[in-house]
Design goal:
This protein has a 6-stranded mixed β-sheet with strand order 4-1-5-6-7-8, sandwiched between helices. Strands 2-3 form a two-stranded antiparallel sheet. A two-stranded antiparallel ribbon has the order 9-10. It contains 4 helices and 10 strands, in the order βββαβαβαβαββββ. A hairpin with a 4-residue loop joins β9 and β10. The protein is globular, with a radius of gyration of 15 Å. It has a single domain (2-170), classed as Rossmann fold (3-Layer(aba) Sandwich). It has helices spanning 31-36, 60-74, 89-101, 127-140, and strands spanning 2-10, 15-18, 23-26, 43-53, 80-83, 110-114, 144-149, 152-155, 159-162, 167-170. The longest helix has 15 residues, at 60-74.
C-alpha cells in the first residue's frame, strides 16, 4: 500500500464561484471531491486541510508552517503532496526544501507540490490532471522537492511560472 500525506493550502485549485458577487474565492476545500473521482485502490491518502488561502496573501509564517508539517511527515518516511496556489508555489517549495535539507531523514522522501490554473469544477480545469500526476509522482520520484504540473515534473529549484502562457517552465 502506497501512503501519501496530502496537505492543502488553498490556491486556485480550491477556489469556488460565489454567485452573489461573481467572484472566485477560497471557501470550502475541494480536494476531497477531487480525490473521490479517482480510482486509487493501492493508495492510502491522509488529507490535512492546513489552510485555504490565495497564495498571494501567503506570508513567511504560512510558509514556515507548511514546511513544519511537511517535515513532520517526511521524517516518518511518508511521501507528501502539497496543493498550493501557483503564484507563490515555487517560493514555498524552496522554503520546504531548505527546511528538509537540515534533516537527513527527510531527504529520502519525495515532496510534490501541485495546483491548478483553473479551479476544480470549472470546465477545462487542470486540477484533476495535476492532482493525479502529482500523486503518481509521489510513487516514482526519489527524495527531493518537486512541482508536478501539466504533464511535467520540475525540481523546485529549477522552475518558474510563465504567467503569460499559464504554465511552468524549467530554468537552469
Amino acid at each position: 500500500m502506497h501512503r501519501v500525506h496530502l496537505i492543502t493550502t488553498g490556491g486556485t485549485i480550491e477556489k469556488r464561484y460565489v454567485e452573489q458577487d461573481g467572484s472566485m474565492e477560497n471557501t470550502v476545500p475541494q480536494i476531497r471531491r477531487c480525490l473521490s473521482m479517482l480510482r486509487l485502490p493501492d493508495t492510502a491518502i491522509t488529507v490535512e486541510e492546513l489552510m485555504n488561502i490565495d497564495s498571494l496573501v501567503m506570508t513567511n509564517d504560512h510558509r514556515k508552517l507548511i514546511a513544519e508539517r511537511v517535515l513532520a511527515q517526511a521524517t516518518e518516511g511518508t511521501p507528501v503532496l502539497v496543493t498550493h496556489g501557483t503564484d507563490t508555489v515555487v517560493e514555498t517549495g524552496k522554503v520546504v526544501a531548505e527546511t528538509l535539507a537540515q534533516h537527513s531523514a527527510a531527504a529520502t522522501v519525495p515532496v510534490v507540490f501541485t495546483g491548478a490554473m483553473t479551479p476544480f469544477g470549472i470546465e477545462g480545469s487542470d486540477a484533476l490532471q495535476n492532482l493525479t500526476e502529482a500523486l503518481l509522482a509521489t510513487r516514482m520520484l526519489p527524495g527531493g522537492v518537486y512541482l508536478a504540473f501539466h504533464g511535467q515534473v520540475f525540481p523546485i529549484a529549477n522552475v518558474r511560472k510563465d504567467r503569460e502562457n499559464s504554465r511552468f517552465l524549467r530554468i537552469d
